[in-house]
Amino acid sequence: MERWIKRLLVLLIIGAGSGAAFRVLKSRQADASDSRVRPTPQWPPFEPAPAAEPVRDWLPPVDGECPPGYPIKANDNSHIYHVPGGRFYARPIAERCYATEEAAQRDGYRRAKN
């Protein structure tokens, strides 16, 4: 019979301890919601800046035509560019469209012979 009483006492002590632990946790949660308590900082402490789109001197053609503001047609295979008003400007299919001749030359293209 003593064994039964000892087990009952152990269960009561464990139950009382877990109740006390529950009350401590509950009070900590209440403290965390208090406006005077600062929240724990999250890591990383800041949002990373969105990656900026790289600045390009050229744009891909739209439906085989150069977009407005990028009239110079360039061919990747021959590394030749064609300017508006040139003799063969209408003939090539643009693979890159440049805004200026200088931009095409920086990328290694040469002007078409007229």
The number of E-state strands comes to: 5
Structural Rg: 37 Å
Could you tell me the mean pLDDT?
A: 80
Assign the structural class, choosing from mainly alpha, mainly beta, alpha/beta, alpha+beta, or little secondary structure: alpha+beta
Share in β-strands: 5-15%
Described by strand count, sense and barrel closure, the largest sheet is:
5 strands, mixed
General shape: rod-shaped
Helix content: 25-40%
Run of helices and strands: HEEEEHE
Secondary structure tally, helices: 2
Termini separation: 114 Å
Low-confidence stretches: none
- Please list the strands of the largest sheet in the order they lie side by side: 1-4-2-3-5
Description:
With about 110 residues, this protein is of the alpha+beta class. The protein has 2 helices and 5 strands. The protein is rod-shaped.
Q: In a nutshell, what does this entry contain?
A:
The protein is an alpha+beta fold and 114 residues long. The protein has helices spanning 2-33, 101-106, and strands at 58-59, 72-75, 80-82, 96-98, 110-111.
Note the topology:
Layout: H1 2-33, E1 58-59, E2 72-75, E3 80-82, E4 96-98, H2 101-106, E5 110-111
Parallel strand pairs: 3-5
Antiparallel strand pairs: 1-4, 2-3, 2-4
Key features of this structure:
114 residues; alpha+beta; five-stranded mixed β-sheet; 33% helix; 12% strand
